[in-house]
Specification:
Elements: E1 2-10, E2 13-22, H1 31-42, H2 51-60, E3 62-65, E4 78-84
Antiparallel strand pairs: 1-2, 1-4, 3-4
């Protein structure tokens, strides 16, 4: 089981948040699926997922997606995913 705390931030204030939970074992190969599910739940566009995003999540237990990581225009400063240990 694992949990990911997702936060949509604007001016360093949380606009929306969601805790993604799954009974499955965490897999980095499924990270895009987790990200897509989180974005649907938060009603925000899905960002482009790069290897550096996955490496940051693996090494630091969190990753931030900034406006440059999105294809569409967004109305917030960043989408942050944090592993809940």
């Amino acid at each position: 089981m694992f949990r990911i705390w997702a936060k949509v931030l604007k001016d360093e204030h949380i606009q929306k948040q969601f805790v993604y939970e799954s009974e499955e074992k965490f897999s980095y190969s499924d990270f895009f699926t987790y990200l897509s599910d989180i974005c649907v739940e938060l009603d925000v566009p899905t960002p482009v997922l790069l290897k550096t995003h996955i490496f940051n999540y693996a090494k630091f237990n969190h990753v931030a997606f900034r406006p440059d990581d999105f294809i569409e225009q967004i109305t917030f400063d960043k989408l942050q995913l944090e592993n809940i240990l």
